[in-house]
Amino acid sequence: MTHSSPEHPPYAPHTSHAPHAAHDESDLAAIAAGVERTNELLTRVLAEVATTPSTHAIFVDAGYVYAAAGRLVVGTEDRRSFDLDAEGLIDAFIDKARTIFPDSRLLRVYWYDGARRRIHTAEQQTIAELPDVKVRLGNLNANNQQKGVDSLIRTDLESLARHRAISDAALIGGDEDLVSAVEAAQGYGARVHLWGIEAGGGRNQAEPLLWEVDSQRTFDLDFCKPYVTRRAAYEPYATSGEGTGHQAAPPGRDDVRFVGAQVAAQWLGARGRDSLAELLPGHPYLPGSVDQELLVEAEALLGLSLRGHADLRRALRDGFWDHLRTQY
């Protein structure tokens, strides 16, 4: 018969791993809790995304719109030869976007145009005051060509897409330089939809741009016609008849007066109210340097020399003063 001794206790089950098992169970519980918290967070995020409407913005290259709509409706791209109802056309673009993106809200309309020294014309000021519209200006060179507009479009389009401010962008333009803007926005997940204006023959949008966008849409003559009106007084300034060398009738006094107000807005924007205060005591006369600048700028806008039309030059000065006096 064998007797146990204190030095040699009877056999007992091995329990040296019990603390490790408890530790493992604790780790698993912590992981499970973390997974549960992550699932809850994802559920809340998905619910928020599901209840947050998509957002779209409309990017309008005004130079393209004027040229394409003018050519389609009145047969000329010369902006001096017709009037464009920008407010009505912008509303039409907004309504069209509402039907195309029914579950999306409008962020705003970006209207890109050119202006000398980036100073708003009277027309551009009116557009800038419209609700949900932001006017962005590039420069106009000596040949009245826009400079810097494409880079403005790219900057805005890329920034809004990067910050997830928009999910869809309606781009109205045709220049191949806009391809990089489209690629940048798409790289951040935004969809870019190219809208254009019907061309009488061929295309007025670059093929690489058409290839890059997510969808395309073209507005026809019936869509554009209500917003474009030919200016009878501007038809045409070029020589009439072949080889006659005679010009058509000059514009009316009201047209020239309006141009005078446009130049005044540019002049005031460039020089400020201090210069206006110095000018007012001389009314109705203008200093020679200001009068010469007014004439040069007006002739550039009109596309016509006023040197032989004293009555129109008086109307031009009247329009200039009309605008300045309303600003004092």
Brief account:
This protein is α/β, with parallel strands linked by helices and 328 residues long. It contains 12 helices and 11 strands.
What does this entry look like structurally?
It holds the Pfam family NYN. It comes from Streptomyces albireticuli. GO terms for molecular function: RNA nuclease activity. Residues 57-198 form the NYN domain. Residues 1-20 are annotated as: Disordered. The protein has two domains: 51-231, Rossmann fold; 248-327. Helix content is 49%, strand content 17%. It is built from twelve helices and eleven strands. Mean pLDDT is 81; it is low at 234-247. Helix 9 (253-271) crosses helix 11 (288-302) and helix 9 packs across helix 12. Strand 7, helix 7 and strand 8 (215-219) form a beta-alpha-beta unit. It has 328 residues and is of the alpha/beta class. It has a seven-stranded mixed sheet, with helices on both faces.
Topology of this protein?
Elements: H1 18-51, E1 54-61, H2 62-73, E2 82-84, H3 86-100, E3 104-115, H4 122-128, E4 133-140, E5 146-147, H5 149-162, E6 168-172, H6 179-187, E7 191-197, H7 207-212, E8 215-219, H8 221-224, E9 228-230, E10 239-240, E11 246-247, H9 253-271, H10 273-279, H11 288-302, H12 310-327
Parallel strand pairs: 1-3, 1-6, 3-4, 6-7, 7-8
Antiparallel strand pairs: 2-9, 4-5, 10-11
InterPro entries: NYN
GO molecular function: RNA nuclease activity
Protein name: NYN domain-containing protein
